[in-house]
Amino acid sequence: MNSLEHKLHRLAARALPGLPTLLAVLSSGALFLLFLAVQNKPALAASALVFEGAFSSSFAWENTLQRAAPLMLTALCVALPARAGLIIIGGEGALVLGGLAAAVLPLWLPAFPGPLMLVLMGLAAMLVGGLWIGLAGWMRQTRGLNETIGSLLLSYIGIALFHQLVEGPLRDPASLNKPSTVPLEDTYLIGTVSDAFAVHWGLVAGVIACLLAYVLLRHSVSGFALGIVGGNVRTARMLGLSVNRLVLLTCLLGGAAAGLAGMFEVAAVQGSANAALIAGYGTSGILVAFAARHNPLAIILCATLLGGVEASGSLLQRRLDLPDATTLILEGILFTNLLAWEALSPRLTAWRLRLLAKAATPVGGVPEHG
């Protein structure tokens, strides 16, 4: 076997894990076009409009990246616990409660300088979000409650608690038709990255969080230990790993990421905590995490693509008279296909191991000895 074949085998082995996502995207696109054709809508024109609304201009890019910023952070709320074998889908609750904590913190503290207050708001949002998702992990490890059901129920409880507080004791009396907390002072608002690039700093925070998560999961002792826990809990316990501590760590970090997304939505977009904070970013983050196969670096790309799809909804509505929720149908089709094509994973793993074994064969095919 020559060196070129070695390289091709390695390249194929690296590409195989992403094959289910690619197949899901292609099949979802075909089904979405069929869905539009059944309604006598120009399917190909709709596809062009999705691209136009997402990536055709600087304004489209700004709109796309504005939506991608919280998706990166809420996707980490799913991807980090997934490394330990947990399926957490309660990021929406952590986001809204984290945003609420960030919105009311300045009301209870002295008038600190703007940068310091923003740091404190971020820490408060991360603490609340981390504890909320950490509660799901704790109940799973100590009470045997399924973490998927537990995190989903906690999300509903978190949203209900948010409504209760915003429409009750924390409501600004001046907010008549749209209940909200007291608006943040201008010094506590987060601006855009630059005048020429009208996207708030949450995008930078999301990218940095994904990079840090990648280093943690792929290039640290704790990340290696988490991989063992996610692969086989019994083996992890036999090796003396603190399974409970590692599971809670991923839940706390994931919840902190979702809470931070809520803080940026409050300080950079809404200006206060109100019902607009419940925009479905926690739910869409689940789709982003599964599409990225829980890889923090791939989350950046998938969040950008999904942000573009969501940003094109209004353009489809104006040009083709389609409901704004049409893009939600596309997201639903994509999520269903991701789950369906996931059945290929065991077979792809076997193929990947064979390719890696061939890539490890010495040039010339002579087996190594000794």
Automatic annotation (TrEMBL):
Subcellular location: Cell inner membrane
Membrane topology designation: Multi-pass membrane protein
Annotated Pfam families: BPD_transp_2 (PF02653)
Cross-referenced InterPro entries: ABC_transp_permease (IPR001851)
Single GO molecular function: transmembrane transporter activity
Plastid as UniProt keyword: no
One GO cellular component, as annotated: plasma membrane
Spans traversing the lipid bilayer: 94-111, 117-137, 149-166, 198-217, 246-267, 273-290
Keywords: Cell membrane, Membrane, Transmembrane, Transmembrane helix
PANTHER family reported in the protein's UniProt record: ABC TRANSPORTER, PERMEASE PROTEIN (PTHR47089), GUANOSINE ABC TRANSPORTER PERMEASE PROTEIN NUPP (PTHR47089:SF1)
Protein's name in the database: ABC transporter permease
Organism the protein comes from: Pseudomonas oryzihabitans
